[in-house]
Each structure stands twice: as C-alpha cells, then as structure tokens.
Prior knowledge:
The protein is mainly beta. It has 2 domains: 5-132, Elongation Factor Tu (Ef-tu), domain 3 (Beta Barrel); 136-215, Sandwich (Jelly Rolls), CATH 2.60.120.260. It is built from 1 helix and 20 strands. The protein has a 6-stranded antiparallel β-sheet with strand order 2-1-7-8-11-20, with no helix packed on it. The chain has a 4-stranded antiparallel β-sheet with strand order 3-6-10-9, covered by helices on one side. Strand 1 (5-7) and strand 2 (10-11) form a beta hairpin. The chain is flat. The model has no long low-confidence stretch (mean pLDDT 90).
Amino acid sequence: MIPDIYINDISVISMGWIREKIEFPIPKAQTETVIVPGRNSPIRFNEALGSVSFEPRAFTIILSMLGTRKNFDSEVLLMANKYNGKLCRIKTSEEPNLYCIGTLNLNSSYEPLISKGQLVIECMDGDSYRYHAEPTEVIQTGNGTINLKNDFMPVVPTIITTSETVLKWKVGEDSFHKTLSSGTWVIPEFELHYGSNSISIETTGTVSFSYREGCL
C-alpha cells in the first residue's frame, strides 16, 4: 500500500500528490521549576494540577508532484485555498484510527530541471493529543456496575439519562456520589483516566456515556 495522508478525510493521493515525508514528534511536556536557595532540588510544577500537560504538537508533512510548472501551480493553488491557515484534521494511512488537529501553513517550491514540485505543510499549534477517529459510547440499562475503558488522555464523558439516576465512583481513596435527573450531563469531577474506570449505576431507565479517547 502506498503511504497516504488524509486532510479532513481527503486523501492527498487522490489529489495527485505523493507523500515523501511526515514527522509527528512527541510533544514536549510543559515544565516549570523554581530554584530555592538552600535546597538541593528545585520545586517542580510539572504535575501541579494532578497530571502532566504538554506543549502544542508541531509536525511537518512534505508532498511532491511531477509535471509541468503550470500544472503544479494549479494544484498548489487548490491546496492553498482549501487548507492554508485553516484548522484541519490530519491522519496517516498507517494509523487510520487516530487523527490530530492543527492549523496548517503551506509553502511550495518547484525544480524545473527535473519537473518536480514540492509542497511543505507545517503545523506549530497542533493539539498535544491525537484523537480516536470514532467516539466511545457505553450504554447501561437498569442497575449495574460498568467499566469505562479509556486511552491515555484524561477525558470527561457526556452522560445522558432517561430517568433519575444515582452514580457512584471512586478516584483513589475519594468516593463520589451524584444524583441526576433525566437529561444530558457533564460532571467535571468524573474524569476518566487510563485503563478501566468503574462506576456503579442505580436507575430504572437507560444511561449512556460518550467520550472521545486520545493518546500522544
């Protein structure tokens, strides 16, 4: 299979481009340290809010095309009008179930001696995490205990209840209890972490949990 790139779910191969190179480096962790005189170790704030935060993801995509200068300029113009300066979803053919989001900046060059043009697509403000292409949805009818599995990115699910519902869960040593009427809810303290997240449900109706997972 020829390696491909999808921009907003559109294949660059289908637009006449060849993928030469793509770099998706791991985003750097946000770090903040304070050196205190008299201490042998600095004060580190990497996980001051309970988890590590990351800097924006920067990535570069290099595409090429063979042909006349006129045809190349026409194709670059099309790409520039569709994507330059715009927030887009990017995914590779090797990992079709993951995508990243960022603002694209395009720059082109053409070598007339070999009739080859090159289009460089750069992003400097991409979201740190890559997202699953399909959201996760778990539905429970009646009383029970379910496990919500999550990838590495912490996420707060959207909860939809059809009748009064009691939710009970634990985070570390802390226990939580929430009573919800029918409707759509987002509970900030109900944050899913990596692995299996157990929650007890008491209801006469149906409860659904929907969220989009992500990873670096």
